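Why show two proteins at once? Because comparison is the fastest way to build intuition. When a single record is shown, students tend to memorize it. When two are placed side by side, the eye starts asking what differs. So, the first record is below.
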Amino acid sequence: MRKGSIAGFAAVVAIVAAVAVLFAYAAGWLSPGKLTPGRFVDRFKQVSGRHPGFRLNHAKGLCFAGWFDSDGQGAALSRATIFQPGRVRVIGRFSLGGGMPYQADKANTVRGLAISFMPAHGEEWRTAMINLPVFPFATPQAFYDQMLALAPDPATGKPNPARIQAFFAKYPESANALKLIQSQPVSSGFENSAFNSLDAFRFINANGETAWVRWSMLPVQPFAPAGPAHPQADTNYLFDALIASVREHPLQWHLLITIAQPGDPTDDATIPWPSDRKQVDAGTLTINQVESDDTSPARDTTFDPLVLPDGIAPSADPLLNARSVVYVRSFTLREGEHKSPAAVSPADAEK
């Protein structure tokens, strides 16, 4: 792999490396003798610092409220209540990857969109998506190994290129995923970002018929590419732009469901499905209100990907169980901590 590609991979991994440690411990892939809960928490906080009351990953965020209008087309795929024609209330959160709630906004930091769909009569559905087209790692073991590959060399304070090369030799799927990630243009802000589930799920309709799917939220707002690095340090410019946009008019995304064909992988989030796969527009997400973590009910919501309604079931992707356990662990930790002021607030954006 070229030197530039290695550097690019390091930049991507810097955002998700911390959550990789979480996955590895919480899902039990490491021996308890090597990594205890206390040592794991200490290590995570050593990497990102101590930030009481914040999420261990995607610590910097802005909550929202709005609704989802189903057009009924998703009902042919899933019997979940939210796909019946009508309107469902939603809450959620935009975020930046990483455990530092006061980090400066950067266009190339992974962006998250987490949503809780809450039908008045039916089961809740939670989903956490990011703006990458694929995930950089296929398995918890790959998470763990890349953590070692990127550990600083005591002599230089930087990752050892030989270890990074060895990682790619062992996990070529991560190298392929990186190429795809780097080939995709980054949008100028949250409001015109597309967000993807990455993991696959199984939809079951009213007749018991099943389909393997992934989903995306595609913005109605027109795409604009990210500009040069923002000149100011320690800014909230991405979040401030999002707040300003919502104040001008509600923001919207289409829920697009992609249907797999036989042979498409359903247990490996590093592999994209072919672009010619059938897609169903299941409805429109509308966001008309934003608020800080301090006041929103989304602050105390774990956007666990396994909180699923009848009609949606998980795949065998090994990341799903790990994510579920991690989110619960993060929630338990921060609920026992003093709640520090939110890093982003609409009131601050007015100043």
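Second record. Ask yourself what differs from the first in the token line.
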Amino acid sequence: MRTVGHRKERPITFSASSALLAEGARFNDDIHRLPTGNTTRIPKGLYRFKSFAEANQHQQDCLVAGMVQIALERR
């Protein structure tokens, strides 16, 4: 087995750290700079589900449809 990368374990503290907040903000900005980082691909509206499994299935279906749409646009 091969180890790829090393993740730093973040300490759990009582008070917030401005350095970690800034790092989180930079990560969020980087995500939004991705080609599809500003869309969720879930249509707007109010959804009511009978179970969490049904909600998860709807989210997964929307994600797959969005991935298909992106793939077709890139062709």
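One difference worth noting in the second protein: The mean pLDDT is 84.
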